[in-house]
């Protein structure tokens, strides 16, 4: 059995197509991935989400290609991307490459709005790129813990701050904590540790369980119902904020 407390890449791709592209009035879109499972999946899901807009002539996908992760010089693929003159550039890979890519992209004159997927932009991205390059970059991402105001989130933040004097820098540890909480709830309410019983409870009986990241219910295939995606921006001081 498989259940997830976070969102799926197709949700993120749809958000990019429906919300981010119109927000910047982008007509020419470039998508770069790294051929790894997550990155390629997000890139393909985004392309699929853009298809109706492409069919209607509203958007043109001018670049869709991969880089090789772990390299230090991406000027060759970036030069090819520059020739397409995109309005918006979506990189679906990871932060080590993203930091190099935004620096090298700006250095060769790519001025497109730069948006990273939820593995691309974090504090390490800023350190690799340098704040001069990172400021003004955007990220599609599940909601970060600092923006939750429900009682469970407030209690979690207070306890976490008391112990570590900071908040988690990414959402994944928080979603992992929620996974543990829903599992414990299922065991408690079903009175069983049998996997069939637990799966049945999660799928059919858990209804808006009050977790750290908000109410949790699951659909018939184990995906969380109603996971939200936001657009974040790197501010001039290196902090992150919700954009729009």
Automatic annotation (TrEMBL):
InterPro entries in UniProt: Leu-bd, Peripla_BP_I
- Signal as a keyword? yes
Is Cell membrane among the key words of this record?
A: no
Q: Which range is the signal sequence, renumbered to this chain?
A: none
TM segment ranges: none
Keywords on record: Signal
Query: Which residues are in the Leucine-binding protein domain?
Result: 1-238
PANTHER family, per database record: AMINO ACID BINDING PROTEIN, LEU/ILE/VAL-BINDING ABC TRANSPORTER SUBUNIT
Q: What's this protein's name?
A: Leucine-binding protein domain-containing protein
């Amino acid at each position: 059995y498989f259940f997830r407390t976070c969102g799926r890449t197709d949700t993120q791709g749809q958000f990019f197509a429906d919300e981010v592209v119109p927000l910047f009035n982008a007509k020419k879109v470039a998508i770069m991935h790294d051929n790894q499972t997550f990155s390629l999946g997000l890139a393909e899901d985004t392309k699929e989400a853009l298809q109706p807009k492409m069919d209607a002539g509203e958007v043109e996908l001018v670049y869709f290609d991969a880089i090789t992760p772990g390299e230090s010089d991406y000027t060759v693929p970036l030069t090819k991307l520059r020739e397409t003159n995109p309005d918006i550039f979506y990189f679906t890979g990871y932060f080590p490459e993203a930091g190099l890519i935004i620096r090298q992209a700006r250095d060769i004159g790519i001025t497109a709005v730069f948006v990273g997927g939820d593995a691309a932009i974090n504090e390490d991205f800023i350190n690799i790129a340098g704040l001069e390059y990172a400021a003004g970059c955007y990220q599609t991402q599940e909601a970060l813990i600092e923006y939750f105001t429900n009682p469970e989130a407030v209690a979690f933040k207070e306890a976490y701050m008391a112990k570590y004097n900071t908040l988690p820098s990414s959402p994944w540890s928080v979603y992992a904590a929620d996974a543990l909480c829903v599992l414990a709830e299922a065991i408690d309410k079903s009175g069983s540790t049998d996997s069939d019983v637990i799966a049945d409870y999660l799928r059919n009986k858990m209804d808006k369980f009050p977790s750290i990241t908000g109410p949790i219910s699951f659909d018939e295939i184990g995906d969380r119902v109603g996971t939200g995606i936001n657009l974040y921006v790197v501010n001039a001081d290196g902090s992150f904020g919700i954009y729009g």
